[in-house]
Amino acid sequence: MIEAIGLTKRYGPKVAVNDLSFTVKPGQVTGFLGPNGAGKSTTMRMILGLDRPTAGEVRIDGKHYQDLKHPLRTVGALLDAKWVHPNRSARSHLKWLAKSNGIPLRRVDEVLGMVGLEEAANRRAGGFSLGMSQRLGIAGALLGDPKILLFDEPVNGLDPEGIHWIRRFMQGLAAEGRTVFVSSHLLSEMSLTAQELVVIGRGELIAQCSTQQFVDNAGSQSVLVRSPRASELQQLIAAQGLSARATANDTLVIDGAETEQVGELAAQHQIVLHELTAQRGSLEDAFMQLTSDSVEYQTNLGAPAPTAPGVAR
Ligand SMILES: Nc1ncnc2c1ncn2[C@@H]1O[C@H](COP(=O)(O)OP(=O)(O)OP(=O)(O)O)[C@@H](O)[C@H]1O
Q1: Ligand 1 within 6 A of 83 CB?
Q2: Looking at the chain, which residues constitute the CATH 3.30.70 domain(s)?
Q3: Does the predicted interface ipTM exceed a cut of 0.90?
Q4: 239-279 pLDDT, tens per residue?
Q5: Using only C-alpha atoms, what is the Rg of the chain?
Q6: Considering only CA atoms, which residue is closest to atom 6 of ligand 1?
Q7: 221-280: in CATH 3.30.70
Q8: Tell me: domain 2-217+286-301, CATH 3.40.50.300, correct?
């Protein structure tokens, strides 16, 4: 479990992370979502003790990173896939990492197998594709068999096959009971990968909730209805306090409505419908809108920022 409590990071006048509190639980993939520059990498570096918070703290299974006896056996991270000596082979890079962290060398071949790099183990890491580099980075994160794993934008720049592999791999790690925290600026990607989301904008918490809940709230809902008596239906809808736009002679679009509402209203007045469809706005557009003004939307999501340490859901 990871707990961030009032985490704040300032770089001179720049506030990169502001009073951020959230919890990442084991057994599921938790997505760390925010647009570029939102403060995700800074937060991850603070979790890993690579950056010192200006205020607040992070606890990993109740402890500060610097108090962990065997950090690599507790937390593994992939922050930068290209962080490897280009002339070293994948195997020698992992051996060096294992040695410097007191991890038995037999673990190297185990993790190479887990990420499917056995055959490339003796090749220069400098010649690896981005997908292979990501696998090598993940192998490094897994060396100490940690219960907690952090991945910073692991699918950036990967082809669909590589994205699919990483997604399945992270889900597998979570299914083993590990805590998996993965950052991304793409809601569409996270909605396929993560069960839970921590969403930030401009360094501040916007929401912590299930992915389903966030997606439901982020995509603005409207209803499209087609009827030979569309104009009559339009008046009935207006009488309910909703606004229905006519997009064709027989077609209306009603913002902020549910299909049930419109269907029942039509039935009450025996109006025949030819179509009744729920429509969602583009998820990415909605997400960009949400994160562009974190304060404005904070209370609209039904998942407000926690008010006290450890309260984040
Ligand atoms: N060492 C630093 N000195 C000054 N400003 C910094 C430093 N590191 C990060 N920042 C600023 O803090 C903010 C958050 O950056 P951060 O890299 O954590 O965001 P991010 O969500 O990971 O975005 P990205 O996906 O683009 O990396 C940005 O405005 C960035 O310019």
Answers
A1: no
A2: 221-280
A3: yes
A4: 988 889 998 999 999 988 889 999 999 999 999 999 999 88
A5: 24
A6: 11
A7: yes
A8: yes
